[in-house]
Amino acid sequence: MHFDAMADEYAAGRPPYPPALWDTITELGVMKAGRRALDLGAGTGQATGPLLAAGLHVTAVEPGERLAQRLHASCPAADVVVARAEDAELAADSFDIAVAATSIHWMDLGIVVPKLRRALRPDGTLLVWRTVFGDPEGPVTPFRQRMMQIVAQRGPLVTPGTGPEDADATARQLTASGLFAVDRISTFRWSIELDEEGVRRLFATFSDWSADEVSRAAAAVHDLGGTVVEHYLSWLLVLKPSQSVR
Length: 246
Fold this sequence. Notes:
7-stranded mixed beta sheet; alpha/beta; globular
């Protein structure tokens, strides 16, 4: 429950998703007022807020109690359910869209994918997206070089799962059961300027960064003049329920 322990930092430090991502979702025609949306792993409301602002009725599922408290405070119009996605009780055919924003990699897809297929209406849409904090094709800035040095000092790492930051790998996992089919994949590259405190708050929310490493990251910003520009990548998967499988 790393994220729950860092609820305040998460709310303050995580940047919003890029406007181009929301523009793409809006162009899909699924963000219509009055529709019902499910937000799984909602955190402190980074996706819930824009969904509510578009006029949707949102059920936000978040397992962390402190995160859920922050979520309720920032998005009081949402129906907040404190539970894991695997355990949440979701009525059949009750949602027009389901969203998993930088959260699907924490879930047991063998449980969650069938649950989502039942919960979505036949013409519903599953939206899965993620921000990769460090665009692998972006410029290698002096700050990014310092971050690479910090990570390199950890030694060999074993990461569970397959390609959690890779859109294609995630798409294969989500469609393996045959319950969903990929409609489109979009990629968005964007940048953000961060000061020392901004880096400290953001990097503290990364589950694989120690407190010492976060302090070193913030110190790097100080050494490099007080602000840095980070280049990030966000991808979006749009999936539709397979009509032949229920």
